């Protein structure tokens, strides 16, 4: 994970050199730290809508990460307001880091060997585009749809935060906590 973070930071700072001074660089690094420490480790309990994160363990507080204060687009990179530049770069860091982190969690060997099928009761991470920064949707698998070959390719998940059930392909889910059978 350190290698991934360093790679993203190196490329971002190289691509956008000259945009940040010492103070804004410090702020950007704090934003990057917040993003990394907001990643889910596990579900804190059955009823919780929020996953347990490194930030919870570091600060010993329940809700530590606030959503970003607005939407930031490419033009904000050239804004005279330095905080908008920092927020834009944090948004770019979030998109790239989330993609790398999801790939790290989803280590799949496509078509070479069978892996574990998702089961009812598994806690999974929902991977969707357009999710605000530092927001990770944890879900519980409530129904599985086996295909003709016996593999699970689609499941229904309950999202506690939204209080709704959605059907999603397994490629959009990452298994965090497998159900334990007694």
Automatic annotation (TrEMBL):
It comes from the Eukaryota. InterPro entries: DUF5641 (IPR040676). Residues 82-176 form the DUF5641 domain. This is DUF5641 domain-containing protein. It comes from Holothuria leucospilota.
